[in-house]
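Suppose a colleague, Dr. K., hands you the sequence of a protein chain of 202 amino acids and asks what its three-dimensional shape might be. Before reaching for any lab equipment, you can write down a predicted structure in token form. Begin with the sequence itself:
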Amino acid sequence: MDTITTKDGAEIFFKDWGKGPVVMFSHGWPLNADVWDDQLLFLSSNGFRAIAHDRRGHGRSSQISTGNDIDHYADDMRELVLNGTTVGFTLDVGLNYYRGMPLSSVEELEITVDGQVVPSDAVLVEFNEKLFMPHQLALAWTEFWGIKRDLHVKVYNGGLSDGPHEVAVRLILRNVYMQFGPNAYGMIDSSATRTLTLTKEN
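The predicted structure, expressed as tokens, is then:
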């Protein structure tokens, strides 16, 4: 029986069929992964990796009394896909301005690796223990990005091979302290390009 153990000790049963782009299925109460068998078979037979799991507290997963909420369900799915597999890398991005800004001031965030733009749906921004997709940053007006805080930008591009890689971050912010008129603001360009060199650990 295929299972993983999550960080808080829950054992999660899962089915992992096929190879290719990942499609994940999550059932509702009071079901389990078996409800998706027809979909798993179809997708795994047509070039996809199809994954379904029993949610914690359901089916063959731990009948655990804690963490039965949407946040933990999402964390369980994330651990299920990432378990034992390198799927990307993380960049720490600092604010290039002398004072803090609301996270919603981010107008553009784009990551380029070796000349190839990473699709926005393969990028997650972690801040204050919350995760945002790039298009969700405009709604993060309650999150304050101070000058001594880094954004943890998670790039799910399959990881980087050994050797040098040119990684570029295009980051444009709306300066909320410099408003010239209705919806007219000064802009801050915090973009940067760096060469990262990866070597295997001995």
